[in-house]
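ingest -> validate -> predict -> emit
validate: passed (alphabet ok, no gaps, 226 aa)
predict: started
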Amino acid sequence: MENLSLKLHPGNWNRNSKQRYLVNRLRYASRYTRHDAGFSLLELIAVVLMIGILGAIAAPGWLAFVNRQRVNKANDAVIAALQEAQREAKKKKLSYSVSFTTDITTKVTQIAIHPKGSTPNSFWRDLGGDLGIQPGQVLLGTNLSEVNTVSSLTYASSFNSSAPQTITFDYMGILAPKTNNNAPDTGLKVVLAVPQGNNSASNVKRCVIVDTLIGGMRTAKDSQCN
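emit:
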């Protein structure tokens, strides 16, 4: 009997040791979990402040980038319209025009590709509407006071049939004569600008310039568009 108790005692001791070991592990894990369960209030405040500072630094640069992208897209739409009018003129052997306007009330900028002699009323389409450009986000200007006639640069002007902001190509795709049959001017500009207060243009500009009699075009930006 005494020998039996001696044989059982080591097994009991091993079980007790294992139980104590497991209890200690659980206590340690519980303390560790509580210690690393989350952030302190001070840490959260520091993170929020860092996000705010980084946002304040990045926001102006991001806004400037978005504005440049808008005028780039609108400028691409203008040159595409002028090239389309040239193609239609040569294809149909008719003079074709591109006219520009801005609704003063809604600030919607519009463009029309139409045969010469027809009014653009049924041809107007929003400039950049299919590009996600909203009214007032891009300012449209031209240096046109009449068909193929250079004048001073003005922005946000509504269409006037007696003094249209219009560029016209003849049946060969070159600049057509003015309304009075004089030779057309060169240096015809269509300007897209990032707006600032009171319908004035900022220094961020893109433009298309028709600078040869045969209808050659080039693009420019910023001070080159003044």
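Strands lie at 96-102, 109-115, 125-126, 139-146, 149-155, 166-169, 188-196, 200-210, 217-221.
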